[in-house]
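EI: anyone free to look at a 189-residue chain?
SC: sure, send it
EI:
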Amino acid sequence: MDDVLNLFRKRRSIRRYLDRDVPAGVVREILRESCLAPSAMNRQPWRFSVVANRPAIRRLSDESKKNLLAELEANPASPLDRYGDLLRNPAFNVFYDAPCVVYVCGPREMKSVQADCALAVSYFMLAAAARGLGTCWVALGADVRDPALLAQLGITPELRIVAPVTLGYPESVPEPPARSEPVILGFLR
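SC: here you go
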């Protein structure tokens, strides 16, 4: 039990990575362990697209930035406004120059897909942390619309991107941020 709790405490969102590739076999092991996550009615709807090519990761970052900026221009009051300067910076890579990005996808019309895939992402992050790897769920990287890029990723129209997750060897591991105590709304006995 202590090992699991220590792993929970050890996992961090990493935004600075070493210039070191993650072996494909390690990525596959982490993906297999991600599939141990629970899902509604055990449907296991998650699908994974792995990108371990830095120029391709940069193209995907630029695609997301372009689409997010178009959304921000159409709606200046959008919550994206807080990211406007970053998104306009040509040097900014939404994936923090990670050597690997894994897109976690699921059926567009499935009601539980967001929760099911989020559980798989949690398992992915913990499996990576157990190996000394870092991850970060990067919502800004999910806005891929270019049909050619989606086809290269194997993401067909009936699927949606739930979570792009970076994966790599951390340059450093930040200290844990402060956490709030649970807000318990009720406790029926």
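EI: DSSP finds six helices and four strands in the chain.
SC: 👍
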